[in-house]
Amino acid sequence: MSIPPEYPHDPSQLYGQQPPQHFGPQGTPPGGHGPQGYAGPGNQPYPPQPGFVRGAQPSGKGFFGALFDFSFRDFVTPKIIKVLFILWLTLIVLFTLIAVVGSFVSMGEEPFLGIVMLFSSLLIGAIYVLLSRVGLEILIVVFRISEDLTAIRKQRGL
Questions:
Q1: Cα–Cα distance list, 92 to 22, 84, 157 (Å)
Q2: Residue 39 lies in a domain
Q3: Would you call the peptide bond into 8 cis, given omega within 30 degrees of 0 as the criterion?
Q4: Mean pLDDT, to the nearest integer, of 65-85?
Q5: Of 49, 74, 131, 156, which sits most exposed with the smallest number of CB within 10 A?
């Protein structure tokens, strides 16, 4: 069974192929370096790639330094995304509670309509929470891709 190479993989090697390993009686390859075959830190399946930086290096600028960066090289959004999510959740809960109270008021006049409003307001509130979380996660992924690409450019001198 072949293990796909870790990102970034060696472009000279086809995806999913690696040199054959002959394992001993307890699953350890020759040399006894563990199940992955390397004695490196964390028992990595491949030796560390030379010059590869894991993740983007954080900039030295704080919130206000990034806020007033007119070249837009440092981003503010990743620094405040948690606060934005909490504020957005607070608004969703507030509007859901208003809808629930409205559904109880309408139950006095038409019980079936009030019950439908109650369940639909709770369902819509839950959907908004889910969509908000997914949207913010996609936004953070875009920022992380940008930071990783910036680190690769700096590393290669581009």
A1: 58, 12, 46
A2: no
A3: yes
A4: 78
A5: 156
Which helix (H) or strand (E) is 120 found in, with range? helix 111-156
Q: Is residue 48 situated within a structural domain?
A: no
Task: Work out the percent of the chain whose per-residue pLDDT is above 90.
Answer: 41
pLDDT in tens, 84-132: 999 999 999 999 999 999 999 999 999 999 999 999 999 999 999 999 9
Question: Structurally, how many domains does the chain consist of?
Answer: 1
- Distance separating alpha carbons of residues 98 and 117, to the nearest angstrom: 11
Cα angle, residue 101 at apex, residues 96 and 102 outer, rounded to 5°: 95
Domain span at 112: 75-156
The string of pLDDT tens digits covering residues 144-158 is 998 899 899 989 887
Amino acid at 15: Y
**Is residue 113 in a domain?**
yes
Give 17-50 as a DSSP string: --------TTSPPTT---TTS--SGGG-SSPPPT
Compute the distance between CA of residue 120 and CA of residue 35 in angstroms, rounded to an integer: 53
Give the Å distances, CA to CA, from 134 to 48, 73, 111, 118, 130.
Answer: 33, 25, 35, 25, 6
